[in-house]
Amino acid sequence: MISARFHHVSLSVADLSAQEAWYGSAFGLTRVDERLELPEAGVRTVVLSNPSGLRVEFVERPGSSPAVHTDPFTATAVQTFTHLALHVPDLDVAFARLTAECGAAPVSSPGPGVTEDMRYAYVADPEGNLLELIGTSRP
To answer: Distance from CA of residue 117 to its chain's centroid?
Structure first.
């Protein structure tokens, strides 16, 4: 067995600056842990984190194309990571803030999950990346 813990997730984005600003406002990802530019590869990256330990890397490569999904299940048609799941303290508040104030597109409204005390919802960030919001009665 290899002992491991989660480090970060990486999202390919079209506009690094815009996504950096959006995730900073939406989730408090304002601390820059790493920033790297590889001009020979045409790639710019930044790893951002927040005080609760969430870490996300954003990678910008000109000419990349977005993955467009109309719902969380169509995302599973391609064998890759399909969404970023985030536990939030209040699902209804988070969903409302992200969709009304931050400009996230609602994908599925808050509803019951499989686990008895779990509820979930999906939103898409400004570039269409799926985010699953999970709320439970447990922290």
So the answer is: 23
Query: Which residues fall within 8 angstroms of residue 44, CB to CB, at 6 or more apart?
Result: 16, 36, 37, 38, 59, 60
Model pTM above 0.85: yes
Topology adopted by domain 9-60: 2,3-Dihydroxybiphenyl 1,2-Dioxygenase; domain 1 (3.10.180)
d(CA 79, CA 23): 25
Q: Where in the chain is the domain with CATH 3.10.180.10?
A: 9-60, 74-136
The span from the CA of 137 to the CA of 113, in Å, is: 12
C-alpha closest to that of 131 among 59, 56, 72? 72
Instruction: Work out the average pLDDT over 93-119.
Output: 94
Q: For the segment 38-51, what is each residue's pLDDT rounded down to a tens digit?
A: 999 999 999 999 99
Mean pLDDT for 19-46 is 96
